[in-house]
Design a protein that fits this description.
The protein is mainly β. It contains no helices and 12 strands.
């Protein structure tokens, strides 16, 4: 998977339906600050933590921005990755250099002992996480440049 082209849709699940004619896929409506977005979960969609999605759950659904999408309203995307969030939580997917600064200098990570570092399949990651694409869960940042945070959890997206 090309993580560089993944773009998040962050909001709250409004509705979950089975996709028409496909029992293995689901259509999910997500309320965002910019309106409703529909995402489709297929058997190939990664759901972090294999969590059962439900109405009212805050989520971030990532779609591949390099793939074509229909020009309809509300927007519809095929989700590549979806993750549940806590109410006060933000998530970022970016390449982090070895010094744990995002490639676009938008965030710097300060690891704590209680920062949970896992692989995409939920296994503990015991190497330094820098030099990889990271899915970072955090709640507050400093006002410095770049902003700094101590994340609650990091998912290392090994290539």
């Amino acid at each position: 998977m090309n993580y560089e082209t993944l773009v998040p849709i962050i909001g709250t699940i409004r509705n979950i339906n089975q996709s028409p004619g496909n029992c293995c896929s689901q259509a999910i409506s997500i309320n965002t600050p910019n309106g409703i977005n529909n995402v489709f979960l297929s058997p190939g969609t990664t759901v972090i933590g294999s969590t059962q999605l439900r109405v009212g759950m805050p989520v971030a659904a990532f779609y591949d921005s390099s793939r074509p999408v229909p020009l309809i309203y509300p927007p519809q995307y095929d989700a590549e990755l979806i993750t549940p969030l806590r109410n006060d939580e933000t998530v970022m997917l970016n390449f982090f250099r070895r010094n744990l600064t995002a490639s676009d200098n938008s965030l710097r990570l300060n690891l704590a002992r209680n920062t949970e570092i896992l692989t995409l399949n939920g296994q503990r990651y015991s190497c330094p996480p820098g030099g990889n694409f990271l899915l970072v869960y955090y709640s507050v940042t400093t006002r410095s440049i770049p902003p700094q945070t101590t994340p609650r959890r990091i998912i290392v997206l090994c290539r």
